[in-house]
Fold each of these.
Amino acid sequence: MAVRARDLLPRSSEERLTLADYEGCGPRWCTGCGDLGILTAVQRLLRDEQLPLEKVVFVSGIGCSSRFPHYMGTYGFHGLHGRALPIAEGIKMRRPDLHVFVNTGDGDCCSIGAAHWLHATRYNMNMTVMMHDNNIYGLTKKQVSPTSPIGTRSSTTPRGSDLEAFDPLIATLGMSNLSFVAQVADWIPELLYKVISLAFHHRGFSFIRILQRCPEFLPDHFEPWVQDPDRMQILTHEDGVQLSSALSSVYRHQEEHDPSDLIKAREIAATSERMPVGILYRNPDAPCYEDLRRPKQLFTPAMIGAGLEKELDKFTIWPTD
Amino acid sequence: MAVRARDLLPRSSEERLTLADYEGCGPRWCTGCGDLGILTAVQRLLRDEQLPLEKVVFVSGIGCSSRFPHYMGTYGFHGLHGRALPIAEGIKMRRPDLHVFVNTGDGDCCSIGAAHWLHATRYNMNMTVMMHDNNIYGLTKKQVSPTSPIGTRSSTTPRGSDLEAFDPLIATLGMSNLSFVAQVADWIPELLYKVISLAFHHRGFSFIRILQRCPEFLPDHFEPWVQDPDRMQILTHEDGVQLSSALSSVYRHQEEHDPSDLIKAREIAATSERMPVGILYRNPDAPCYEDLRRPKQLFTPAMIGAGLEKELDKFTIWPTD
Amino acid sequence: MPARKQSVQRTPVSKPAMAIDEHVVEILSDSGEGAQKCGQSFASISARMGKGIWTVEIIPAEIQPPARSIEGASGNRIRVAGYPVANGGDQADLVVAFNEQVLLGRLRANELKPGSIILLEDKWRTSIDTAIADSYNRVYEDLVAQGFCVYEIPMEVECLKLVSDPRRGKNMFVLGLLCSLYSLDIQLAREQIQFIFGKKGELVVTANRRLLEAGWAWAEKNLDFKYKIPATPAKEANIVVNGNMALGLGIMASGMEVCAMYPITPATSVSHYLSDVFEKVGGVVHQAEDEIAACAFAIGSSYAGKCAVTITSGPGYSLKQECIGLAVMAEIPLVVINVQRGGPSTGQPTKAEQGDLLMSIFGSHGDAPKVVMAASDIEDCFFSVITARKIAETFNTVVVLLSDASLATAQQPFARPQFSEEWLAPPVDQSPVGDEDMPYDWDDRTGQSHRFIPGQPNGMHTLTGLAHDRTSSVAYDLGINKEAIHHRSLKLAALQKTLKTPPVFGDDEGKLLVIGWGSTKGAIQEAVARVRADGHSVSSVHLRFLQPMASGIKEILQRFDRVLAVENNWADDMEDAMIDEDNCRYSGLAWILRARYLVDVVCWGEVGEQPIKPGTVERVIRRQLDNKHQEY
Amino acid sequence: MPARKQSVQRTPVSKPAMAIDEHVVEILSDSGEGAQKCGQSFASISARMGKGIWTVEIIPAEIQPPARSIEGASGNRIRVAGYPVANGGDQADLVVAFNEQVLLGRLRANELKPGSIILLEDKWRTSIDTAIADSYNRVYEDLVAQGFCVYEIPMEVECLKLVSDPRRGKNMFVLGLLCSLYSLDIQLAREQIQFIFGKKGELVVTANRRLLEAGWAWAEKNLDFKYKIPATPAKEANIVVNGNMALGLGIMASGMEVCAMYPITPATSVSHYLSDVFEKVGGVVHQAEDEIAACAFAIGSSYAGKCAVTITSGPGYSLKQECIGLAVMAEIPLVVINVQRGGPSTGQPTKAEQGDLLMSIFGSHGDAPKVVMAASDIEDCFFSVITARKIAETFNTVVVLLSDASLATAQQPFARPQFSEEWLAPPVDQSPVGDEDMPYDWDDRTGQSHRFIPGQPNGMHTLTGLAHDRTSSVAYDLGINKEAIHHRSLKLAALQKTLKTPPVFGDDEGKLLVIGWGSTKGAIQEAVARVRADGHSVSSVHLRFLQPMASGIKEILQRFDRVLAVENNWADDMEDAMIDEDNCRYSGLAWILRARYLVDVVCWGEVGEQPIKPGTVERVIRRQLDNKHQEY
Ligand SMILES: Cc1ncc(C[n+]2csc(CCOP(=O)(O)OP(=O)(O)O)c2C)c(N)n1
Ligand SMILES: Cc1ncc(C[n+]2csc(CCOP(=O)(O)OP(=O)(O)O)c2C)c(N)n1
Ligand code: SF4
Ligand code: SF4
Ligand SMILES: [Mg+2]
Ligand SMILES: [Mg+2]
């Protein structure tokens, strides 16, 4: 591996990274796929933050949404269906210097990965988690997902699904050691950017459920909300989301919500007639697992050697002479 | 299999089943283990209900608590760690005639089995689920469990655990298609019996978190609550738990709680200073998966034959002449 | 540009159809342009006329790949012959392409016969996007230069005369073309259109019929060639389905009542089909939260007397291993269908591979004997499920049925099955259990035992994955686990005694025996037939049961000078400088045969490609005959 | 009752110690009475004096089994010899039992040498519970009738003279007894007590020392026999730990930084030990929510440059298969330790078995080549981890290290390791990546490639479990998966070239070769030594690497008339009426050897028992020598 001199120099201000630097290979999603908007927002955020490409890892499971890392110019780990979170935890555990992002789907996160999701929430490691919720299994071609609304016709529910949709927002608000929960939609770019940015700046496990359109398999599914801004409820807060005046005029239903109020957050998630978007909950004081588990000792050869000798001493039979 | 005449006769009232009929092999739990009280309550309930032994199946995972089925005189399925719920679902799916009970531990249910728990709640199949929560891994000898309080010294957390306990009550109250959630403690036999009985009579997925003492590994853990009834909050309702006068005088903190009020249930679970026991939530109208999925057609050879022929017709190339 | 002129300007008067034995035809389009429907219809009409067919789906790896992209090629390969065929053949004789890009991937993969005919949509030549026009021209010139016989077809122009959105009609125009070129019965083609579009109403039917007829007329008028492939009209009713639908039909026919699954390519389409029809015969498809839950659900259901199947592919199969071990241990009948795909890990979800054989035999920790069988053609997919259910319930064991991505989407006509009630299980036994009976009362000769199903009075016991004795009590004493393990192993031996020695294809003895299993059967047998036609002493044998294996196989192997395993999985190459007999990793079946029979089975395996072709196998055989020992 | 009087009433004056080569001693109590501590102390003192020892834990299957129950027996077997020993020996020469019930299970399992000495707590004889007194009397009479030499010891009575709760002190009284009986250095015993109880304060130490001395004095006064086992005082420092602690120490010493696990018997105690000490050297033990998460976590950590290990047993190992396939595919170094237990399914969690070998080699769908090695004694547990980490990081691959329940709890002294920085990995590479470099730039000869670790400038790429090319891009083209599979397979071949042919124990050629792997080494070699002492031409070879296997093994096998695999896993018995060469299910290693070398390896396996004994192997060998071909 040849070392290039310029890599060793600190980047000067002229060498600002551009959007193109954050792009990976060309996205292969369908035309109109909501994942595209998420990608754009994330690339912009990273550019605006000027995150060093090599210090960022995008981790994902399997699904359309989980192709995300391939489309970033950073490091990426396209893992196994349902296992993005534990992989991301392993990465973060001893590499606090890395910025870890996770992209997961509704099937990936709420179905096969549900146990990991619940525990990742509790571990509260510092990472930004985007759950692309298109209410369907995209990659495997239209099977019902836990978040599909009742009656959804899919390849495995040809006469309509039987169960009420699983609500990931309420569920996550019931988990322990909660740190950051937000909801946003792919079709409001400004808000999308803002919420992901707030999540990124939050220290802890920042979970964002992103309503994501899948025109291929559920073409009109989110249209009522896309078409009618009045069906959306924007959660604002001085220390959270604040709408531009342009957006304010479109999204008229705004509600001041203090993200530290968990009881209220649950109530909003459970009872809101409109679709709430914004920060539901944020607790900057929830302890992060990687901090709690950071050993007091350095992991150096000398330390290891000394520690080992000390342990061996305990079990040693010395020659008797 | 020789058929004995008496098995073919309907049981007369004289042939009431006794407690002994509901006993399996002798329990092997430690002295003072809370599982013993749960076993007693369940055996009594089945005796009182006179459930036919052959129509009852106890399903469990792996753990001390999961040994439960062996100690019952009914059918039992002692499955795999974390997988009791999907096994129980498979049993119930096409056997509505069977009474299905599930015994699971805090590790079994909330750790390795968490995804199944969340989905079993949503499927809402008619079964009674007892989660024996001793806040520790018993069978494998004292490892920390998700429900262990912060600071718990265990074999894998010798200097005390780092994370706040996971709260299964709040979590389950955040799940979808919710049907029945209760909490009770092994050391209040009357209430234990009552709550399990109410759960059994509820049609749907009845989840009971049972606080269960493990004197072997956490000897004094629940003592504050055992010793001081004032630390308990009994949730009563005219159509739910009602205390005997004897118990009423001991457990003075009673609260009338309407189990149909989910928002309130969440609030109680999240904010109650005392340990709430009783029915937190009950929704008799939540649809059961096995009902929703009951096919309109009988599964008979004639039906199968006819159905198959009809399908084959679709793909048949008939001889042309 | 002579080739071009050649095609569009000719106006032939009379075209005697050239008689040919068979052709391999491919139809390629962007995904969504309907090449698959066109290909399937072409195959159906041919089959109805009594020709032999085998279809192979060409599937893009993406949901909606970019238009005009190499990886986006979507379509069908149809092999049509005057006799039954059992694989997709070697290279294509004729290709219809809706744009020049979709051709490129097939060319690179060497799927076109040198000099073959290409029918190419010509609208790109005049595209206002000059990049497209340039690309088209470049490819066109190149094809011609390479000696392909390219006919440019004004598909869009012609379709626009009839419909406003030619993207949705071109495929039926092409069907008309092909009907003319292969002298198919245009009336059958009209019926096919009725069958496909009938549900969408008369207007749609009419529009598509017109397109069909237009294509037919255009070809009659403008193309200077025509083929005729002989047909042997069927004497009996046949059905045409792909392997996954055959599995679905087999599940219905086997009397299984529950299918628990979690979506995964390429297995999922079995459950798609089944989700549609299973309820009509009283069955149920349960989409679980993951593969582990699906397997556990199936186990619960089977335990309760409702025999269940769980269907998956590679990654899901790995996940199910713990549950499979439980079913083995507790002796619960369970059918596990694994439609294999390219591995390892997420691998190549839509590609065929036979990489899961050894895992199927040796998977799950501890001694977990299970039956492993493999379907080798479409009909076999159907009947294997019925057999699998029967074995599972007779021996109270797990039966793994292996199929793969190749069979999953391939179509081949086979005799319409005659439903028999014997295929079904008897109804759930709910009679009281005798006082002396025990849940695991193993027969010391066969290892078999009854099992008690909940609801049976007096049969109460607790089933457990812990070591247990005949009463199903947890066994603490030494030696009890051994007794149970012994009996579970015996069950495989007892089943083995009932298996028939597989027939040898070709002579019973000779120079070279090719041995295979699963979806490679058609390709292997055709390759063997070809070299036999040249007088070579080569035979083949194909295994249906991989664990246990029928008696008599050793004797077959020994009657040949050399044995070659041909599989669609990895085998190290002895020619590789690093590989020798101390480290060679043999193909799956080769491991088993070598271990069991101590015969020096050499092997050849292929991964990451299309389904194995007869020509490829033929070349491998010929190299073996050239006696380059250990080349593979 | 002569035997009884014999013991308690005699007052010997002088007792010359009888010189013996070795003894197998067992100490049995109800769980919680401290027999294990007594046994371990006895072993430690013996070892410190320079005797050879091997200890085996006797573990009840329940947490708190009923008192005075057969299955409740808890304790230790200690083999003490005048020379190094590598297994627990055959039958016990002397047993101390705290009640008569705990003896019964050992008797049934035939663990006592005929006529052996039994030291029995006598308090039960006079129990006010007549059922207990009767049981005691019955067993006592029976033992005497069977010819055991039973000494009744008033343990409780004697202890009560010193402490109020004899349940907590009896074990040290017994230690004193044993020190006297085996002429151990009482001063070392005092130090041992200081070591064990030091933390609990001087009072506890004193009380226990008094009990020790009382036991010693009582034996000196009342028992009429005394042994002396020679000792060769060690010239170098030795350490005494069990196999699981050795694994834990090995993990520390290997430079791995993360251990991700989920509790499971018998693997968990590795993590218990590690949880205590790993942080002190900067490492971390993460108890994940399940085994899949643990494996995924370890993969994530290794990917990020912090080499990780995940530890489990059978059921957890089955669950990890999908993740293991990902690590293989993505070429992430990963060490997986599987402390095998009795299977299948939940099986026998505390019992030893070697049932996971074939799954380790062939597990995970598709072609997933990984390295499989096995530790064969306690020292090997330590060093194998270091080797495993090194191979994993050198070849960017998965290394499975197999141990089992037998090694997990067995203790044997070995030379104190000398820490070397070479054991550790170099620090995480964070240097910039060259412009030409690719994340999977496979070397065509060895299959190896660099890998880029997050943080390395210019190394950005997305790792994937999908088929990928050298740049780690998803591979849609045919043939690319093959290229990657080829190189991953080559890595095993390249490693294989570096492996040393294992040494033959005994002559290099002869009549019978016994072959084994893992924890059976000590028993096999002792058995071979015994029959060799009788002049038989028998040798053995023990494998450390199971996949790949070192060169030269075939040549070794061929130099013997017959080869017998001896394993602690299931093997069908050819004598069984149902079993023949067409259906025989061979033991794990036998499968591999037969397949690779085409040598007719016969096999013998044992499941559901204690660790395999040298005497058992000896009998198996002798039967083979009697030339009953194919008996096993
Ligand atoms: C273990 C395993 N099971 C199943 C699959 C097949 N699979 C791939 S993606 C997917 C679900 C996709 O849905 P979702 O997570 O919602 O992502 P989307 O494609 O909608 O973005 C499934 C079932 C797999 N790759 N691995
Ligand atoms: C797949 C698998 N992983 C781990 C184990 C080991 N194991 C058995 S029980 C148990 C946890 C027991 O804790 P809990 O569920 O709380 O039950 P308890 O014993 O406390 O009643 C574990 C980890 C197992 N048997 N199978
Ligand atoms: S299938 Fe749906 S989710 Fe997947 S890429 Fe297409 S539009 Fe997006
Ligand atoms: S270990 Fe704890 S939970 Fe298990 S049986 Fe003993 S007291 Fe009960
Ligand atoms: Mg989705
Ligand atoms: Mg517990």
Amino acid sequence: MNAELVVQLCYLAASILFILGLQGLGSPERARRGVLLAEIGMVLAVAGTLLRHEVITYQWIIAGALIGAAVGTWISLKIPMTMMPERIAFSHAFGGLAVALVGISEYWHLREIGEQMNTLQMTATGLEVLLGAVTFTGSLVAFGKLQGFLSGKPVTFKGQNFFNLVLAVVAVALVLWLVFNPTAFAAFCVLACLALVIGVSLVMPIGGADMPVVICLLNSYAGLAAAATGFSLRNNVLIICGALDGGSGFILGMMMSKAMNRSFSNVLFGAFGSATTTTVAGELPGRAPNQASVEDAVEVLRAARTVIVVPGYGMAVSQAQHAVHELQAALAAGGCTVKYAIHPVAGRMPGHMNVLLAEANVAYDALFDLEQINDEFAAADVALVVGANDVVNPAARTDPASPIFGMPILNADAARSCIVLKRSLNPGFAGIENGLFVSPNTMLVLGDAKKTITAFTQAIKSG
Amino acid sequence: MNAELVVQLCYLAASILFILGLQGLGSPERARRGVLLAEIGMVLAVAGTLLRHEVITYQWIIAGALIGAAVGTWISLKIPMTMMPERIAFSHAFGGLAVALVGISEYWHLREIGEQMNTLQMTATGLEVLLGAVTFTGSLVAFGKLQGFLSGKPVTFKGQNFFNLVLAVVAVALVLWLVFNPTAFAAFCVLACLALVIGVSLVMPIGGADMPVVICLLNSYAGLAAAATGFSLRNNVLIICGALDGGSGFILGMMMSKAMNRSFSNVLFGAFGSATTTTVAGELPGRAPNQASVEDAVEVLRAARTVIVVPGYGMAVSQAQHAVHELQAALAAGGCTVKYAIHPVAGRMPGHMNVLLAEANVAYDALFDLEQINDEFAAADVALVVGANDVVNPAARTDPASPIFGMPILNADAARSCIVLKRSLNPGFAGIENGLFVSPNTMLVLGDAKKTITAFTQAIKSG
Amino acid sequence: MTDLLESLVFGLYIFTLAVFVGFQVLERVPKLLHTPLMAATNAISGISLVGSMVAAGSGRGTVATVMGTVAVAAASLNVVGGFVITDRMLRMFKKREGPRK
Amino acid sequence: MTDLLESLVFGLYIFTLAVFVGFQVLERVPKLLHTPLMAATNAISGISLVGSMVAAGSGRGTVATVMGTVAVAAASLNVVGGFVITDRMLRMFKKREGPRK
Ligand SMILES: NC(=O)c1ccc[n+]([C@@H]2O[C@H](COP(=O)([O-])OP(=O)(O)OC[C@H]3O[C@@H](n4cnc5c(N)ncnc54)[C@H](OP(=O)(O)O)[C@@H]3O)[C@@H](O)[C@H]2O)c1
Ligand SMILES: NC(=O)c1ccc[n+]([C@@H]2O[C@H](COP(=O)([O-])OP(=O)(O)OC[C@H]3O[C@@H](n4cnc5c(N)ncnc54)[C@H](OP(=O)(O)O)[C@@H]3O)[C@@H](O)[C@H]2O)c1
């Protein structure tokens, strides 16, 4: 009994440390200490588990842990910051796999020793395997699409929604069946395989650019699966972490869909992906965009006292964050104030731009949220749009027919002049034209953002 | 089993509703709906309990509930808002009583049927009876002091701290003894009586004005006692409510002691009351206070474009809140802007001034916290100090020797002129002189605040 | 896990989590509403009613029942009184200027 | 209460309270740190390691053990990888201007 109490107290302490750790992420100063607390929590949880009397052999645990830790460390140290969305999809896949395997192995073990699960265990294990396996294949597909192994295009066929619905109903029916017939091994196997199929068929129809929302959704599923494991193993730390994890996916997904002006229930119930498929070209005033050379733009920048940089997905594509920081330094050396305006869904992941700019040593107190900075554009000399598009599209304010109408955007068009860096006249993620590019006080400098900015910096330094 | 499940789900729902209810108190718009949710939660909890199979007779429950509800409603409808501190002390006493009686009756019942408590139950019951009984008598003494039944003066004798310490040690020892000898009935009785004594001897030495901090402390004790009941009866809703209640007492106590510039650990460990006993008369510039007549003050008020009212304990004493609102209306009719500056510990209870002004129909968006309004005094024509003293004492900013040095205060002295209403030249709660009263741009109008303000209003209306 | 241990452990989990929830919720209550907050937690603390009802209504002999009944009365005084006064206070908080007398 | 019912009920309490705690904590994470947050919850979700270890280390026959071992590897990949990358990201967030290259 005493060892058992120690185990339970370890788990309790771990749960507290995880919560305190996430609380630490409430501010950048306390964030690293928070992560340290969470790490200690994880060590305690593992140590507690090693003390459990069921655990009698260690070699397989050690082997698995060493392999996992080695691969995990290697990937995490090597991966460039621009590939974070891929990395997160990838690790959701492993999270789902682990949970599903725990459920399957538990079921298998009881079957081997001739016992059967009680109602609660069977319900929890069924949901655990279902959600875990869906997360596994779903995240793999998401990863493939982001990475380019799979076509980023939505892969659809007629009746797909109906097909998915049928699969989901069958899966739930199988779980119910198992609850009343826990020994129905065949049903269990079918459930597991079906869940793998559901994961694929849920994510295949969705366009690559919509992946971030899908990933948050899968994050929530993974959390729920872990919580279900907690119910079936009567393990509270699993329930708590599952709830924290599921909640984080849910909150980030909600925030994203709000900032993208879609109803979250649409996102939850699979109606996303539509924006990519229905490309509505908003009507533009028949003006030609005002293309400008690097020299013209540099002249404007030299005269500016305040510049607001608006980074977007294009900055990530061209890895221009370091170049941007150098430009900031060059401008600041000339006495100009440089601020960054970060739209909540700029890039392809919540907080994407913040991490990239932090990587390039930009101090985070120079980064401002939409609400903080939007009124300052009117007083700014230059808004420098580095590979952003949808998040500065004035149609969101003015054109009720636009698919992004109502989405809060950065008022780059309010600045005295606006310099836009992009490679072509192609639209951005939402697939719609952008009136900002043809506005008279916009200068469009075509070309890769990194190259263009480096050229700016050189010209400003040498001049 | 099914009835049991229903009971448990009622309790779970009740817990959720209590949490949502307190969340509602996060803003005045949602507060009433929040309280409604909490009420529904309470109904569910009671309904669930009636379904429990242990509960077989209803007449005593109904009798008790009717009496309690009738008395509670009557008191709550009749009591004037100025008596809230008394009312809260009073109901803590009943909370402590209920918890202690539950523990005693549980113990008695098991003894009668010849069973004995297990370790967990006995620990929890011991703590429950201890904390409950301390809260009971402690709150009664606090009530008596606030109400004037008992002398508000600190009642002390030599060696008191040592005496209290001994009592506490004995009580804890008795609990431990009971854990190992749950059938020691005599020890149980001694524990209960001793706890009653501790409650009295803990609160007697503390001055009437320090009661609010004591009340918060007793609130925390009551919460912990309820949580202990939850452990002994294995009732989660009790544990959750106990934690919420204990947390609220703790947070309010911490906030108060911070705003009063005392360390909370001092307060927790009984070092409060000291400010009342060590009356340090701060040195004042040898100027005589600038006493003024109602007419002089009215002249200044008539000329003012912006007036900031600083209410304090004196407003509660003289029940001047309605008069203040009428003055506000009269001034506003003349085109003057009137705002209220609410210090976090003005009055004798957290939020005291807010409730009084709300009672007098003052809109809550005219009330401002210290941080919100402190910079506005410099631009105000008049600071009208209605029975406040310590919270506007500039010594807190300037005199390191003052006992309130470092406490954040309202900068009433920064206004162009300052009108102070009080009855005499006596000091306020902290017992120290106030340099504001002798400052050259202060006008001191002596007299009861309500009478003075009514005179102001009449003069302004008629003029 | 023994039964005893299990209820201790689960109780500790619930208590700890409730403390977290409580702190986070209560921290966000504005100073404006601190007095109603005190009254509302007072009402909620009347939840000991749930324990008192069992003590009063389980047919446990005179002494236990009398104590239970007194506990029921004390707890329901808090519950009902606390909610009534909280609501009475909150009704007074108004955003726009109310009618003047 | 039956054993089964009790663990269901306690589990529901813990889940519910944890959801409250989670929402309140996560709502306060600034947008600035949303990417590190995703990585950190990723690491924490590796807590399924705790279940995997039992599956891999309880001497339950080949099939169960192999599955358990794979699960341990997958979960510890998330735990270790998640914490490493979170820390790597957070180290990049600086308040004052860092040295320029
Ligand atoms: N952040 C999230 O969490 C999230 C999640 C899901 C969806 N989204 C969506 O993603 C969009 C984000 O908006 P955004 O303004 O950041 O990006 P965007 O609208 O996708 O536009 C990116 C722009 O960058 C340009 N670009 C690409 N590569 C470039 C390079 N190497 N050099 C210079 N320019 C380059 C592209 O134009 P060219 O091709 O002409 O160069 C394009 O106009 C929003 O619609 C949002 O709803 C965001
Ligand atoms: N709010 C809380 O939670 C709390 C809790 C515990 C302690 N406290 C303490 O209480 C104090 C509160 O400060 P405070 O400025 O509000 O009050 P205060 O410093 O106690 O002063 C009250 C003033 O009101 C005057 N007064 C009393 N009755 C009056 C009447 N009928 N008409 C006009 N004036 C009258 C008194 O002067 P005369 O006697 O000359 O009339 C006195 O100067 C602080 O020291 C604080 O630390 C507050």
